[in-house]
Amino acid sequence: MCILKSVISAILMISLCLPPSGCFKKERPKIRIAGSTTILPFMVRISEHYSGKGEVEIQVDSCGSLKGLEALLNGTCDVAMCSSPIPAGMLANAASKGMQIKGFPFAYDLIVPIVHPSNPVNSLSLDQLSGIYQGTIDSWAAVGGNSGKIDVVARAPSSGTREVWNQVILKSARGREDWVIRDSNSGVLAFVAEHPEAIGYVSLAIVNHEIKVPSVGGVAPTMDTAKTRKYPIARQLYLYVDEKTLSYPAKSLIVFVLSEQGQQIVAQSGFIPQDALK
């Protein structure tokens, strides 16, 4: 009888630990990442490295730099990918919420103007680019090209690439109102590749043979001109976090990005590693 009671007790104990569907597996830590479409391919490489080890689950959403920052401030992501510095207004908003926002620059990138391969224009000055994006220059003939009207392509307002481009090219001037808007670097590239009269701007990391890259002010966008900071349209790439809520897995991920191996992935992704700058 005592043996029977012991067996029944053991079965009851097991039944409390094992539900009908089987044992629960320990849930992997999760890192939610959102933001820049420029940084997305790099972060996918990073997530493949971590997910391959089975130690952490990484979710990546490419919604634009500013939307990534909004997600961080709203607590719906752990790391915001940003291709421009956080705006002062967002930083003040975060501080008012008691958040401690910190940005980790991890790479250097160039933003390049792109045109159709058939376009004869090989170089544009900053003033010419400014005129094109303001609308005061609307014909390719005005900058040494053919007589066609210039179709101007820009990024969506949530884009960090747009933020940096406007700061350098437009400064405080108003942009033209008939821009073609695309939500990603690849969207801009695809439009320009299909429209001979178009001009756009993208990260140097995604440039391919389908488009042509004019120099800016006589300076070609190369790794050498990036490292020596001669090319005029450049930016840091950042990962932003709230230090007050930063989890150990998210911290470890950022440490890896800044490590020698992580910086090798930076270079493989077409960006310039931090220690390569002169």
Detailed description of the structure:
- The chain has helices at residues 2-17, 40-53, 65-74, 88-96, 126-134, 160-170, 185-194, 223-227, 248-258, 260-268, and strands spanning 30-35, 57-62, 79-82, 101-115, 123-124, 151-155, 180-182, 198-203, 215-216, 234-242, 272-273.
- Helix 9 packs across helix 10 (260-268).
- It has ten helices and eleven strands.
- It is α/β, with parallel strands linked by helices and 278 residues long.
- The strands form two sheets. Strands 1, 2, 3, 4, 6, 7, 8, 10 and 11 form a nine-stranded mixed sheet that branches. A two-stranded parallel ribbon has the order 5-9.
- The relative contact order is 0.18.
- The chain folds into two domains: 30-106 and 237-276, Periplasmic binding protein-like II (D-Maltodextrin-Binding Protein, domain 2); 109-227, 3-Layer(aba) Sandwich (D-Maltodextrin-Binding Protein, domain 2), CATH 3.40.190.10.
- The radius of gyration is 24 Å and the shape is globular.
